[in-house]
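Translate sequence into structure tokens.
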Amino acid sequence: HNRLGTHTRLEDKNGKQNIGYWTDARVWVEWPFVIRQKGKFTVKADVALEGNESGFNVIVDGKSMRSKTGTTGGFGKFKTVTLGRTKLLEPGEHSIQIKPVRKNWKPINLRSITLEPVQ
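Result follows.
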């Protein structure tokens, strides 16, 4: 959800797309997703970050988890990080949002979000 005057957009890094130019802490992203079997899930993301640390909230169906990631060594060096764990999700449609925490936000590149079933 871009704000007027911001330039967050899809870009290509090494043949793979990511959300880049995410410099404004008022900008956030959201995706719908479908769960086929009831369960809890670990939320992981492929991110790249130059700054020391960036803080954000991961919100699944309105339930927020505070998360952060440290530097990956640059905006082109992606690492998979664990962002948290969901509550029990029922089969059906859900949504996930990534919203910056303004006082802890540093620009990141976001390549993917993955939900892995907790065993």
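Note: The chain has a mean pLDDT of 93.
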